[in-house]
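During data preparation, we tokenized the protein backbone, and the record follows.
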Amino acid sequence: MRNYNDQTEHDEIDLSTGWLITYSDMITIMLCFFIIFFTMAAKETTVLSEIKNNLSTKITALADENKKLQIEKENLATKLFDLTNIENDVNTSKEDFIAFLRENDLLNQVKILQNEKGLLIRFNDNVFFPSAKADLSKNGYEVLSLMGDKLKKIDNDIIVEGFTDNLPIHTKEFPSNWELSVARAISVVKYLTEEKGIDPNRISVSGYGERNPIDTNDTKEGRANNRRIEITISN
């Protein structure tokens, strides 16, 4: 016969070891939590690493592209006019195009620049045309002949753009500045294509009239700067 003391001892044993089950469950849950935590942390680290690597690759590629573009621009200036440094070399260059401008006092009316489109040659309008006219002058033919010889050596596209000042023009031939600017740009393109044999598919032409000034129209000097022909050799 089972006495009371034996039952009490057995119950005490059960109570004294029951906590192990709860404890083991808690340990198991914590272990699962840390496994999940470290797994997610590892994945986040991998994602961040991939993002960092992708950004580094793109930044490097962009830098290389900018460097390549700059080299192409410098090579274009060198190829056409033997100018490794445009700002400095243009004043001392013996290249025939530059020399012709200097000998005919036109050098200060022509600027060779680099921009995002390519190599820009900017001519004051009186280099090519008499006032309010779209027929090429003698100097205009000479300058364009030299330019045409250079442009035939490369395959780059060419953009020809005409601009005027804001003083209105009302002639039978040109009722507006816009029509004058277009006619002048077309005269340049026609000479390059018909006389110098440059492929017309390489050239685009535009006229902007008094729009897009590069100087003030409130002074004589500013208006003279705004009356211009721009020839851009695209990169």
